[in-house]
User: What shape does this take?
Amino acid sequence: MQKMFNAMVRGLRRLALVTTLAVLPTWTVWAAAPQFSIVTPDRTIGFPADFGAHPDFRTEWWYATGWLTTPDGKPLGFQLTFFRSGTDHDLANPSRFAPKQLIIAHAALSDPAVGKLQHDQKIAREGFGKAFARTGNTDVRLDDWTLQRMPDGVYRARIAASDFTLAIDLTPTQEPMLQGEAGVSRKGPHPGQASYYYSQPRLKVSGSVLRAGKPVAVAGNAWLDHEWSTSYLDPAASGWDWLGANLDDGGALMAFRIRDRQGNPIFSHASLRDASGKITQFQADQVQFSPLRTWRSPRTNATYPVATRIRTGPLSWDLTPLQDDQELDSRQSTGAVYWEGAVGITRDGRPVGRGYLELTGYVKPLKL
Assistant: This one.
């Protein structure tokens, strides 16, 4: 009897194995990773639809930076970013808890009186009305952090961070600026290494900053970037240096370089829009970033070129930070540490504008 029982058990095990192998290919197809869209040069950016989210692409962000002034004339810098990240989780999974999209947010305030960056971060799976990036118009939320484009075109940001609260409105004064070729911005030597990318320079800012329970009215100018992509960085890339600047004459300047692990440029680009709206594009061989002064972080030991000279063709722009310590540690959300700082801009020793400089990949190579 025992021998017969053992034989039956062996038979059932073989049947279970055969059944599992038979259904495994079907299950594998059902659980396949999503196929994200890629950037192609024939697609045209169109508004208002492209103000909203693009969940068919892997990575997307809405990124606002600016200079604020308090009633007593003191300068403040601010940064707020909402990321949407498509995961490799099975799209056919019907569970509302399935992490198909992640929403991540960063917020930071630069105040020379504090001496270091005040910053906060959040991350959550999309869903349940608490975290989302909606299509059709800018409308992103992560708990009580929100960025919305209102019917009149004004961006409304409400960010309750750990050390401060931002309640500001950003009003466009110019048309969106399409970066690259009609909004297709190359990021590397291969055509697929690109993003759809537009900026909204010269946003007029009004609102308040709340710290230690005390609201302070602020006003100033800001810059907003919106990018989405699936294949962004070359495999050899370690990170990038990027500048978005509002110029005092009404113009706007964007410049970036992608660096390899030795610090050499893989790809560079810049665009300059003058006050009349004319855009000049500067190709890779016309753009150069040169450090003028570095700062070493006491927390990560990373060395950042916080004062930098950028050449765009015949033009030279010198960047000076509002304060040296503007390092943001986002290892609890995106996994990266980067320098994100308010900078003043001069040409030939004369102030010509203000902007934000972003330096990534100086602690370890950046991964998107």
User: Anything to note?
Assistant: The chain has one domain: 49-91+98-360.
